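Researcher: Go.
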Amino acid sequence: QVQLVESGGGLVQAGGSLRLSCAASGRTFSTYFVAWFRQAPGKEREFVARITWSGASTFYSDSVKGRFTISRDNAKNTVYLEMNNLKPEDTAVYYCAAGVRLTIRDYEYDYWGQGTQVTVSS
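Model: Structure:
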C-alpha cells in the first residue's frame, strides 16, 4: 500500500516557476513507477510526465516537454515536478500517481494523491 501527498501548488504569473512534490509512504515506493497528471476545469485528466523506479528514464507530454522536469529521490520517498516558463494553459489540479506499469494511461496507475492546484495568471 502506498499513500501519496502532493504539495507545492499555488498561484504564479505566466513565465514563472513552481516545484511540486509528491511524498509517499510505504517501504516499497522505490519499486513503483510514478507519473504526474493534471486536470483542468471541464477537461479530462491528462498525462504530464512519468519516471521509472530508478529515475533513469523519463517521458513527457508534448505540451510540457522542455519546460517541466520530473525527478525522484527514493531516499526521501519523494517525486518532484519542476515547472518552468509556466503558461495560463498549465492551470489545473496536478496529481501524482504510482503503479507497477510504465505507462501514460491514468487507469493503469494504482495509487493517487489528492491533488494540488496550480494557477497561472496571464
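Model: The chain has a mean pLDDT of 95.
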